[in-house]
Amino acid sequence: MITLRTEGKRSEEALRAASAYARNLIEASLDPLVTISAEGKITDVNEASVRVTGVPSAQLIGTDFSACFTEPEKARESYRRVFSEGFVRDYPLAIRHVSGRVTDVLFNAAVYRDEQGRTLGVLATARDITERKRSEEALKASEKRFRDIADNAQEWIWEVDAEGKYTYASQVVEKILGYTPEEILQKHFYDLFHPEDREALKAAALAAFAAKQPFWEFINRNVHKNGQTIWLATSGLPLLDDKGNLLGYRGADTDITERKRSEAEREKLQAQLIQARKMELVGQLAGGVAHDFNNILTVILGNADNALARLTEQDPMHKRMREIKSAAERSANLTRQLLAFARKQTIDPKVLDLNDTVLGMLEMLRWLIGEDIDLVWLPGHDLWKVRVDPSQMDQILANLSVNARDAIKGVGKVTIETANRVLDDAFCAEHAGSVPGEYVLLALSDTGVGMSNEVLKHVFEPFFTTKGLGRGTGLGLATVYGIVKQNEGFINARSEPGAGTTLEIYLPRYVGEEAETSGMPAVAQSMTG
User: Fold this and answer.
1) Whole-angstrom distance, CA of residue 462 vs CA of residue 479
2) Which residue in 471, 206, 509 sits closest to 354, CA to CA?
3) Burial of 307 (0-12, 13-18, 19+ CB in 10 A)
C-alpha cells in the first residue's frame, strides 16, 4: 500500500510540474493567450492579455471573449469558423484597451480536446501587428504620394525591368504618347521608338543596361498612338539588388517636341538668312561686273559700227566686223540679264492686269515650248492690278516657259494660272522673303523631271544650271528672281524629282488710282501645238 501511495504522489507531482512549466511558457509569451469555452466565455488568460486589454485577469475570466475586440461580431464570426473548420489562421482583428488605444492583431485559434476526443474549448492567441500595419500604411501613403507626384508632374515617370519591359507608367504617358498606363505595361521601351531609329536606339539603351550605368538627356523619337512623331528626352537610373544585380531602371521622359520644332525653325530661318545674304552679295557682284562690262561693250559696239560704216560688203573685214558686233550684242544681252538679277536695270513700270499680259503672250509661248507640250491657261477672276514694267513680265513668262520646256522629256503639259492671294503671318513664316499682305499670284507648273532639294537651294543663283554644256547660261531663273525682287515681290519654287516643278511669283497688289483701269476679259484656254 505504501508503494502505491508513493507512485501516485510522484504522478501528481509530475503533473503539477508539467502544469507549472506550461503555465510559465504561457506567461512568457509576448502575445495574448486565452482559453475559451464552447459558449465563448474566457476561461483563462496570460499576463499579455491583461496588458493589451488593460483589464485584470479576474475580470476577464468569465466574460464573452468578443467584448475585447473593436468589432465583436467579426470576432464571433472567427470563433464560429474555429468550430466549423477546426482552426483559424491570421484572422485580422483589433483589440481595444480600456484607455481607448487599439491594437491590431492576427487572431489564431484551434479547438482543444480531452483524451477521449471531447471538445473542451478553444485555445487562442493574438499576434500584435500594430507596428507592421503602421509600416504598411506608411509605405502605402508613401507610394500614394509618389504616384500623386508622378501623375501631376510634367514628365512621364516610368519603371522597366531588366529586360526593358514597363512595370510602371505614370498617367502623364497618355498626355504625351496617347497610351494609357495599362497599355504601356504591355510593351518594352523600344517598342515606342520611331521605326527609322528603333534598332540604333535600342542598341544604345541596352548598352547602358549592360553597363548598369545611369543616362541623362537621351534624345529619342517616339511614335504617338495617333501616328505623330514625338521627341523625348529620357533620363534613367539603374535599380540594383543587394548583390548588384540589375533589377531594372527608373526614370523620366520629357516631351521636347516643341523644342525640336523651334530648333528646326531656327535652323531653317538661319539657312534662309544665309541664302538671302548670299544672293544679295552675288547680286552686288554681278551688278558691278555687268555695269563695267557693259561700258566696255559700248565701246566695242561703237567702234564696230564705225568700222562697218567705212567698209564695203565686199571687203573681207566687213564679215569679221559683223561677227564682232554680233558677239558684242549677245554679250550685251547677258549683261542686261545680270543687271536684271542685280535689280539695276532701267525700268518703266505700268499698271497691268496680268490676265491681259499672259493672254497677249500665249501665241509666242506656245511657239517657244513646242508642238508636243500642251499649254493650259487658267486666269483668275476679278484679278487685282499690279505695277510692273510690261517688258519685264514678258521676260518672266518667256524664261519660265523655256525652263519648263527643257524640263519636259517628250510630251507634257505646262500650266499658267493667276489668282488673288492674301498672305498671313503663318504663310510668310514658311516662305523666305515674303511679307504679309495682298498679292497677285502668277504660277507656272510643268510635268517635267523635277528637281531635288539640293538643286532647289541654288536654282535662283546666276550661272547655276542643270542643263548640259551649251544648253543654257544659268541666268534664266536668276533674271526672273531679280525682276520679282525689283518689284517688291517674291518667288517660291516647289519641286520633286519625277513630279515636275511649280514656280509661284507673288507681286504686290497695286491700289493707286490707275488700279481701276479695266482690261480685256481673260478666258481659260488650252493651247496645243
Assistant:
1) 8
2) 509
3) middle
d(CA 529, CA 526): 10
Place of cell 540589375: 246
pLDDT, position 15: 39
pLDDT of residue 331: 62
d(CA 234, CA 238): 13
pLDDT at 11: 43
DSSP 281-331: HHHHHHHHHHHHHHHHHHHHHHHHHHHHHHS-TTSHHHHHHHHHHHHHHHH
Residue partners of 266: CB distance under 8 A and separation at least 6:
none
Contact 201, 193 (CB under 8 A): yes
Give the single-character DSSP code of 515.
Answer: G
Q: For residue range 53-101, what is the model confidence (pLDDT) as tens digits?
A: 888 988 888 989 888 898 999 988 888 888 888 888 888 988 989 888 8
- Is 370:405 a contact under the CB 8 Å cutoff? yes
DSSP string covering 501-525? EEEEEEEEPP-SGGGG--------E
Helix 316-341 with 257-310: angle, nearest 10 deg: 150
Q: How far apart are CA 483 and CA 492, in angstroms?
A: 14
* DSSP per position, 117-134: --EEEEEEEEEE-HHHHH
pLDDT of residue 469: 43
Do the beta carbons of residue 65 and residue 75 sit within 8 Å?
A: yes
Q: Is 91 helix (H, G, I), strand (E, B) or coil?
A: strand
SS3 343: coil
Q: Residue 180 and residue 221: Cα distance in Å, rounded?
A: 19
User: Cα–Cα distance between 518 and 503 in angstroms, integer?
Assistant: 27
Residue with cell 508513493: 6
CA 416 vs. chain centroid, Å, equals 39
Q: How confident is the model over 359-404, as pLDDT tens digits?
A: 888 887 888 788 888 899 999 999 999 998 887 787 788 788 888 8
pLDDT in tens, 333-344: 656 555 555 545
Instruction: Annotate 18-48 with DSSP letters as a single string.
Output: HHHHHHHHHHH-SS-EEEE-TTSBEEEE-HH
Least confident range of 223-232, 239-248, 283-292? 283-292
